[in-house]
């Protein structure tokens, strides 16, 4: 795999992981936000249907390259909240992408809605 050019990683987001606990009202409790710099966040916005039968969704993908943003993302980040400064997204899955012949992670694809 070739390395990605750092000039393409133009986004900065914050991510808040759940603690697994619930507050007095039954809502999830989140850890303090962690800022991820030099990442790529591909946003999408989809609308299905027309007029009164409209459904909107925003399936997006966050690409985190450990070479430029030293963080380890794993399954504990599922259901975390990503904030890009405009909207909040919920993490649905974290996919580590490895080098072909190494056990080293090339990037993480964080799928969110």
What labels would you give this structure?
113 residues, mainly beta, Thrombin, subunit H, six-stranded antiparallel beta barrel, two-stranded antiparallel ribbon, 10 strands, globular, Minor capsid protein, Minor_capsid_put
Question: Using only CA atoms, what is the Rg?
Answer: 16 Å
The rounded distance between the terminal residues' Cα atoms is: 28 Å
CATH fold type = Thrombin, subunit H
CATH architecture: Beta Barrel
CATH class group: Mainly Beta
Oligomer: single chain
- Total count of helical runs of at least 4 residues: 0
- Overall mean pLDDT: 93
- SSE order: EEEEEEEEEE
Principal-axes shape call = globular
Low-pLDDT segments, ≥5 res: none
Number of domains: 1
Percent of residues in β-strands: over 45%
- Could you tell me the number of beta strands? 10
User: Strands of the biggest beta sheet: in what spatial order?
Assistant: 1-4-7-10-9-8
Helix percent reads: under 10%
Q: Structural class, from secondary structure content?
A: mainly beta
> Could you give a short account of the major beta sheet?
6 strands, antiparallel, barrel
